[in-house]
Amino acid sequence: MSEIIEVQARKTLQNITPYPPGKPIWELQSEQGLSKVVKLASNENPLGPSPKALEAIVCSLSDIHRYPDSSTSNLRQLIAVKLGMGADNFIISNGGDELITLVSEAFLEPGDEIIVPSPSFSEYEFGAHLMGANIVTVPLGEIYSFDIDAIVNAVTEQTKMICICSPNNPTGTYLSKSVLHHLLDVLPKHILVLFDAAYSQYADADDYTDGLEFVRAGYPIVVLQTFSKIYGLAGLRVGFGAAPESIIQQILKVKEPFNVNTLAQAAAAAALHDVEHVHLSLQINRQGKNQLYLSFRELRLPFIESMSNFVLVELGPDAKSIYEQLLTKGIIVRYGGLWKLPHHIRVSVGTEEENSTFIQRLSEILKLT
Ligand SMILES: *Cc1c(COP(=O)(O)O)cnc(C)c1O
């Protein structure tokens, strides 16, 4: 049957290209007929989920005929106590990704501008496109540091929001506390800073800030956090935003009532207090990062020291081909072309075994090219 459809979608949707997720393990297995696949593409926790979260899920299973708590009171209260703020300073979302969409829906009018350092996480642009806002990209400076002067210079009458990811995905670089403070002080107060701290738990530099102190101080800032990375709950979809209360109230207006499911709420509450799981995750990450650094040095591959759980490494003009050859050998990483870094790949830090398999395969490929 031929279709006769003349319904027009909103014009702004022409700007949206689907998010290219890291290839799932099952897909590569069926494409290549491989039984063993190592996925180091989505910065997931190689240790797995917190055992306490798993227990909490089992305990909640018999409640799933009921709607979830639409105000996520228990989880918000636990987060508030842990972070020393009020429960009204938080909104729980269906992953950090949903928070970005909600913030965009709450604050961006068509024609508004958002400033995004580049390269960075692509979801900020998605939110802007969705609302018909315009994107102003500002390149990162030398060795992918944040160029604050360039960001401030990019501010216009139309600027509504500035998105800062720290540690930045995909570079692993971060913005220091004093520089963020300076930025917040010089910006006009009608500009909202979306501070994406999805990887904050991994950052160990003395001058790193997760941005929360500036929420407490009442600046126009929304801090994004997620349970997908160090807490190992990516498949459940839960994250949150922290902001001054008046900002949270606006974001709540565009939230669906039941955006975070019962199992996710229970698991996140348990994972938040699983100190042992977080501690072990950090340890594996620290060791894994050193393992990768050492191998990259041996292979004479330039890389950026990362404050996070992934490393951006430069493979040169053959990077795309190397990325594809890695796939045929059962290794999934991220190709840098996604961020207009055609000579790079981004590799998530895995377990010791996963990292060695990756390095072995990479070395085999490099000897051939
Ligand atoms: C992973 C990630 C998020 C949030 O991911 P969710 O799974 O939606 O919570 C947010 N920002 C950055 C930079 C990320 O890498």
UniProtKB/TrEMBL annotation:
Pathway: Amino-acid biosynthesis; L-histidine biosynthesis; L-histidine from 5-phospho-alpha-D-ribose 1-diphosphate: step 7/9. Pfam families: Aminotran_1_2. SUPFAM superfamilies: PLP-dependent transferases. Keywords: Amino-acid biosynthesis, Aminotransferase, Histidine biosynthesis, Pyridoxal phosphate, Transferase. It comes from the Bacteria. It catalyses: L-histidinol phosphate + 2-oxoglutarate = 3-(imidazol-4-yl)-2-oxopropyl phosphate + L-glutamate. The keyword Amino-acid biosynthesis applies. Belongs to the class-II pyridoxal-phosphate-dependent aminotransferase family. Histidinol-phosphate aminotransferase subfamily. Homodimer. This is Histidinol-phosphate aminotransferase. The gene is hisC.
